[in-house]
Amino acid sequence: MTKKELIICLYGSTGDLSFRKLIPALSKLKLNNKLPDKTLILALGRREYTTETYFEFIETNNPSAETKHLKDITKYYKMEILNNEDYLEYKNMLMNYSDENTRVIHYLAISSNMMIEVSNNISKNGIVQKNNLKQSLVFEKPFGRNYSTAHQINETLLKNYNENQIYRLDHYLGKDLVKAILDLRFKTNLLESALSPKKLTSIDIAAKEDDGILNRGEFYDQTGAVRDMFQSHLLQIVSLLTMNKPKEFNSLLIANEKAKALKNVTIKKDSLIFGQYSGYLEEENISPNSLTETMVKVTLNVKNKFKNIPINILTGKKLNKKETYIKFNLKDGSQINLNIFPNKSITFVTKLLNEVIDVGHTFTNIDDEYATLISAVINYKQENFVRSDEIELAWRISDNLLTYKNELTIYNNKIF
After folding, report:
1. Helix axes 112-124, 147-160, angle to 10 degrees
2. Are 170 and 207 within 8 A, CB to CB?
3. Inter-residue contact 209 to 319 (CB < 8 Å)
4. What does the alpha-carbon distance between residue 16 and residue 372 come to, in Å, rounded to a whole number?
């Protein structure tokens, strides 16, 4: 049997994330010749599918998905990933396709409460051997539910694997404009000075959605805005915006500086607003007495050279518009805006001769964030992922934040 250069094992291959994001991303990588010629994608699932009927399922659930580029390199493999007995045959099948030079990536697109059991099954069956960097695991958010569960997952993983084999994925880190933050801060002479704390009065970060929870009621009511958005995406942005410049731009030193920034995050308690949109309690699969927040507004400070710069954060559902942005407010009244969604752009707003000058650039060559991150895993680029201590520090901040949730503001989409 032909040995493969790359094998991607997709756990949770019939889940929402797989058919909406991962299969389209893999298709783009294949179309753009960013996968080796000898690549195999193993779609793991417990349903009675063949490879052909698996793709029919994908196309039914995501009619816009381009799958034709993947059909020759994908194999559906039926197994129960929580059943340890299924792993012996699975391991033998993998061995038929691989040798010591094969890059093997185990992408766990599964819920966090399955992470420990599945990763243990992979380890104890010798499917991934500790310190073999050719063999990697990718984990999706949510990575735990709080500090305690995240720490437990990390502790278990690090018994079985080397940190450099583990890729904790936050898809915001695959967004081109988020990836560009360090370049803007440290590698662009025009902006490096303007974005220093000496020139800033505040920073605004918003990740707003105009939709409600759609069909995610059961998940969202157990999660809320803090766990869904603040703990992961937004605190990652905060760490990139406020970290010190590393001596070198490598994954280890970048993660060290991000972790230092997160250790120094403080919450301005009197700024906090927890909200729940009007009508949330009538949504499907929502507890009639739910106290889950669908919006959070908070000001953070970071006790480093940014200590005097308030960082104002707003995220939530059913707000006035769908947009994601970072606004740098300068002492001279100017603004530098990094618009992440819907238009990927950077704008500069200032005043001269009593006239407002608003200039900007919209980026058109934007990569798919999941394709970017999968490619980064293939190429061992750890700087695009979240290290264990970053995850735990972010959960400590979020757990602390949630202790201040004493009441909810009921809002409609005209307020924020």
Report:
1. 10
2. no
3. yes
4. 19
Going from the C-alpha of 322 to that of each of 177, 208, 340, the distances in angstroms are 17, 5, 11
Helix, strand, or coil (residue 281): helix
In Å, how far from its chain's centre is CA 301? 23
Report the distance separating Cα 211 and Cα 317, nearest Å.
Answer: 6
What global pTM score does this model have? 0.95
Burial degree of 298 (CB within 10 A; 0-12, 13-18, 19+): buried
- Residue 90: which H helix or E strand, with range? helix 87-97
Distance CA 30, CA 39 (A): 9
| Residues shown for the chain | 416
The CA distance from 209 to 324, in Å, is 9
For residue 71 the two structure tokens come to 């059909």
What's the half-sphere exposure (Cβ side, CA atoms, 13 Å) at 237?
Answer: 29
State the residue for tokens 């994330």: 17
Count CA atoms within 13 Å of residue 175 on its CB side: 20
| CA distance to 88, 199, 341, per residue, from 358 (Å) | 62, 19, 18
How far apart are the C-alpha atoms of 230 and 236, rounded to whole Å?
A: 9
Q: Which of 102, 24, 95 is nearest to 58 (CA)?
A: 24
Q: Which residue pairs, CB below 8 angstroms and at least 24 apart, start in 307-311?
A: 308/197, 309/197, 309/200, 309/201, 309/202, 309/203, 310/202, 310/203, 310/268, 311/202, 311/203, 311/205, 311/238, 311/241, 311/242
Task: Output the CA torsion 154→149→276→288 (10° steps).
Answer: 140
Structural element, H or E, at residue 268:
strand 265-277
User: What residues contact residue 134 under an 8 Å CB cut-off, 6+ apart?
Assistant: 100, 101, 102, 103, 104
Amino acid identity at 232: S
- Tell me how far apart the alpha carbons of residues 6 and 4 are, in angstroms, rounded to a whole number: 5
- pLDDT averages per 10-residue partition of the chain, 416 residues: 94 95 96 96 97 96 92 97 96 96 97 92 97 97 93 96 97 94 92 93 97 92 97 98 96 97 98 97 96 98 97 97 97 96 95 91 92 97 96 98 96 80
